[in-house]
């Protein structure tokens, strides 16, 4: 059977690898390199806006062995070495402010004093997140139909972080997560 796979990202390449054993598979990818969001800037993808001595992982990295055995089999078959990393995230704002996730605080802060400082900095993030949860608790379930998540997020600090996580998780450009007509603060 002839099978066309649209997208040469992690899922597309894994599907192609598994199906190619018994089918005629063609992968269609619009980008000049395979891998989708699995990229390392200045390593397998050139990046003129980043200092050439630096590399930056950009995209999906959470392929735990227990949950993604086929992906790991593919990497093994392709002789791609994988390195386990601690998962965390941070939000950096244009004004220089930043917020660390609990994982980033746990793995990145060297002293207890630094950890306490970073946890206290999360207060506005946590507060805006609880406001979001409260708003969702009192929203009728049928009003969620056919509306983007951004209609409920607003533009608070936690909303921006959630939008970034959506972008990351769903490979969606940030600007494609539309701003709401209604802004909650």
Order of helices and strands: EHEEEHEEHHHHH
Query: Helical percent range?
Result: 25-40%
- Structural class from helices and strands? alpha+beta
Q: What are the low-pLDDT stretches, counting only 5+ consecutive residues below 50? A: 179-185
Rg over CA atoms, rounded to whole Å, is 20 Å
Shape label: globular
Measured between the Cα atoms of the first and last residue, the distance is: 54 Å
Going across the biggest sheet, name each strand in turn: 1-2
Tally of separate helices:
7
What report would you give on this structure?
This protein has 185 residues and is an alpha+beta fold. 37% of the residues lie in helices and 12% in strands. It is built from seven helices and six strands. It has helices at residues 10-19, 69-77, 102-108, 112-121, 123-137, 150-153, 157-170, and strands at 2-6, 24-28, 39-41, 56-58, 90-92, 98-100. A two-stranded parallel sheet has the order 1-2. A two-stranded antiparallel sheet has the order 3-4. Strands 5-6 form a two-stranded antiparallel sheet. Strand 5 (90-92) and strand 6 form a beta hairpin. The longest helix has 15 residues, at 123-137. It is globular. The model is unreliable at 179-185 (pLDDT under 50).
């Amino acid at each position: 059977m002839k099978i066309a796979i649209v997208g040469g990202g992690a899922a597309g390449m894994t599907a192609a690898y598994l199906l190619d054993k018994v089918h005629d598979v063609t992968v269609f990818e619009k980008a000049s390199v395979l891998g989708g969001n699995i990229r390392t800037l200045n390593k397998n993808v050139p990046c003129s806006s980043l200092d050439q001595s630096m590399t930056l992982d950009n995209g999906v990295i959470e392929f735990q062995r227990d949950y993604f055995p086929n992906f790991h089999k593919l990497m093994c078959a392709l002789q791609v070495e994988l390195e386990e990393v601690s998962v965390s995230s941070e939000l950096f704002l244009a004004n220089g402010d930043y917020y660390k996730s609990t994982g980033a605080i746990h793995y990145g802060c060297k002293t207890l004093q630094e950890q306490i400082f970073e946890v206290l900095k999360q207060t506005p993030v946590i507060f805006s997140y609880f406001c979001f949860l409260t708003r969702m608790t009192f929203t009728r379930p049928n009003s969620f139909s056919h509306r983007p998540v951004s209609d409920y997020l607003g533009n608070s600090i936690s909303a921006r972080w959630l939008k970034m996580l959506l972008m990351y998780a769903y490979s969606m450009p940030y600007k494609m997560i539309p701003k709401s007509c209604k802004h909650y603060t």
